[in-house]
Amino acid sequence: MSVEADRNGKTLSEQSVLGGHAPRTQRTGESLPFDDRLHLDAHRWLVDEAYLLDAQDYDAWMARIAEDVHYLMPVRVTTALGAGYSTSPGMAHLDENKYSLSRRVARFATEHAWTEDPPSRLRHYVTNVRTFRTDKQDEIIVDSAVLLFRSRGDVREAATVSAGREDLLRRTGTGWALARRTIMVDESVIRMQNLAIFL
Amino acid sequence: MTDQTSVIQDVQRGMIPAHIYNDKDIFELEKERLFGRSWLFVAHESEVPEAGDYVVRRVLEDSFIISRDEKGEIRALFNMCLHRGMQVCRAEMGNASHFRCPYHGWSYRNDGRIVGLPFHQEAYGGEEGFKKKGQTLLPAPSLGVYNGLIFISLDPDAEPLEDFLGEFKFYMDYYTKQSADGIELRGPQRWRVKANWKIGAENFAGDMYHTPQTHTSVVEIGLFREPKAEKRKDGTTYWAGSGGGTTYKLPEGTLEERLRYVGYPDDMIERMKEQWSQEQLDVVGKDGFMVSAASVFPNMSFVHNWPRVEEDSDEVLPFISIRQWQPISEDETEIVSWFAVDKNASEEFKALSYKAYLMCFGSGGMFEQDDVENWVSLTSTAGGPMARRLLLNSRMGMLENGQNVVEPLSAEEYSGPGSTRVGYSEYNQRELLLRWADHLERPMEKAAQLRVGTDPIQPPPAAGADPSRAAGSTAIAAAQITSQEA
Q1: Given 3-state DSSP classes, what are the helix, strand and coil percentages for chain B, each rounded to the nearest 5?
Q2: Residues B437 and B458 occupy one common structural domain
Q3: pLDDT digits (tens, 9 = 90+) for A148-176
Q4: CA angle at residue B279 from B274 to B285, to 5 degrees?
Q5: Residues 6+ apart with CB under 8 A from B336
Q6: How far apart are alpha carbons B478 and B37 in whole angstroms?
Q7: Which of B372, B467, B481, B329 lies closest to B47 in space, CA to CA?
Q8: How many domains does chain B have?
Q9: Is the pTM of the predicted complex or chain greater than 0.95?
């Protein structure tokens, strides 16, 4: 498993304070061959998503989010080897459902979200994609690495965030939808002025 | 170091040379004279509940292990091996009976006492060459606890923590003592922003004036019903002891109705009534004010707000957050932000209050996002030569002749301690910066030095932070360290 689980095998989504509603589907078997149709679908979905997020086209992005989504970004902490955990117990940067995501998106649509006016220039680099079947016909697990480059103003130093993601994608009548995302950011201290972005 | 006399004098008159928000020389002076002796918040007892639990926290460049030793006492130990100076603990948190230096293997108990010194006899000739007995990791020179909040000071002669906090303790209890068992702290989230540390501390201390402008968007999306311009100015700013903050005016009603208005359930209200003094209850129930943001000099802040967090409900949910503005340089701050909640609150309340925190404040919080954008911009602008020509007017609330625009509330109008006024003003920002100026103009005495292995030192002091004495506060002088003039 790419996303850490505790000693009882509970995933971070299950351990999180606000993840009670989250779908629990887990991966089965080895990663799919890169020419598998499911993998091709998943990879395309992630790349399309990256373009939407770069363009801050959040209405289109929200249309790809399932109603029961759990969107989790734990706080990483430095712990001794063997401590058995590397996330802050009971705390996250983001622990969101569809409603709280919708408020964040709605805020950017107002004329008073100063942090994104003028908007950042964003580039989401997505790589290391692999796809797994689950025991559900219409659900797959997709791992990916994401690097976000964010530039504000003309000469301010750009900020980057590196993270690994585990996504649960669900097939719907209109395409795949994101039903669960766990973002394992690679820094304990975030080097970005805020998380007015999505990973 | 350049002479800062005129800067200090300007600040004392309420005129702020804009460059103090991005000035290397000023920052050097702050490090030495302000952070070198102030009481600074580092952790809460609930972060180290069990024997052996520890967290590692910084005071600027200095790393301290905040641990609970085997006897249950809180320790703050300078994270530097007595031998060659390695960090003996390189994790941020955990549980350990001992800390072992990876360099040469010296090891220390979680109360700081040295237990392992490899080849003590062969290499040093035993005690005659190196006095191992009684050696401990250097304790923080002063340590104090109030409501479970652990503070340290690098000044061994710091006044007792409770004396320093003074009447601000009255207001701290609203955030950290809603029942006999106090709060539990979760987190922190940590992130770095290219802004000077003073800006956030000033903002949280008293800037009600920014709320309707900066935070328009969170009202528009239905997250918050309060920060409309006409409502914010009905609240107060207060300054008491070493801290000050802002309040919102509550609608008419009884104490219980007013606490329900900000979202507290009846079981929590009952515990508040048992816990708080009559005066603390009267600020809410009789005077009709509810605390919001606040700062303790120099760099600790609180926030208490009550947003709507659920889709199909008009109910609001209160949350509390504690934070530290950790200076990194003259133009960079690490924000260290915790979620706090009353230990005795229901699990359901704790979860929703946490959700309210995440949506509003912290690294992803929607209020916070717009604040930081402003502060980064301000800091950047303050770095150039033109900023040295501007003295920013921080005299809001005061006429040119020093007369108040609005007089403080009388004892009949207001039950809390300190000086309290309705409406927009910059009294609190001035109070913070006056203390800042006092520190900067007062030279430091040379700190005592310890000659390791030569001078005997006493076992380090503990906070006496027995959880059963949670309400108490203790301040302990440094271990007896032989003074050594360089």
Answers
A1: 30, 25, 45
A2: no
A3: 999 999 988 999 999 999 999 999 999 99
A4: 80
A5: B188, B189, B190, B323, B324, B326
A6: 13
A7: B467
A8: 2
A9: no
- Residue B206: give its domain's CATH number: 3.90.380.10
Nearest to B363 by CA among B342, B387, B337: B337
Do B95 and B204 lie in a common domain?
no
Q: What 3-state DSSP class applies to B398? A: strand
What ipTM does the predicted assembly reach?
A: 0.96
Q: Do A78 and B220 touch (CB under 8 A)?
A: no
Residue B50 lies in a domain: yes
CB distance B139 to B124 below 8 Å: no
Yes or no, beta carbons of A193 and B309 under 8 Å apart: no
What is the crossing angle of helices A98-108 and B366-381, to 10°? Answer: 40
For residue A129, the distance in angstroms to the closest alpha carbon of chain B comes to: 26
Topology annotation, domain A12-185: Nuclear Transport Factor 2; Chain: A, (3.10.450)
In degrees and rounded to multiples of 5, residue B111 shows phi and psi of: -100, 5
Rounded Cα distance between B417 and B170, Å, is 7
Residue B364, C-beta contacts closer than 8 angstroms, at least 6 positions apart: A73, A93, A94, A194, A195, B358
Residue in B293, B286, B316, B311 with CA at minimum distance from that of residue B246 = B293
Query: Which residue of B46, B65, B189 to mutate against A (max A Cβ within 10 Å)?
Result: B189
Question: CATH number, domain at B129?
Answer: 2.102.10.10
Alpha carbons B323 and B355: distance in angstroms, whole number:
17
User: Which residues of chain A lie closer than 8 angstroms to B369, CB-CB?
Assistant: 113, 115, 194-196
CA B213 to CA B341: how far, in whole Å? Answer: 29
Alpha helices in chain A (DSSP H): 12-15, 37-54, 58-62, 98-108
A108-135 pLDDT per residue, tens:
988 888 888 899 999 999 999 999 999 9
Q: Six-digit token pair at B39?
A: 């009481």
* One domain for residues B431 and B462: no
Regarding whether B459 and B435 lie in a shared domain, the answer is no
Whether B37 has a pLDDT exceeding 70, the answer reads: yes
Query: B418 in a domain, yes or no?
Result: yes
In this complex, the residue of B194, B310, B358 whose CB is nearest that of residue A193 is B194
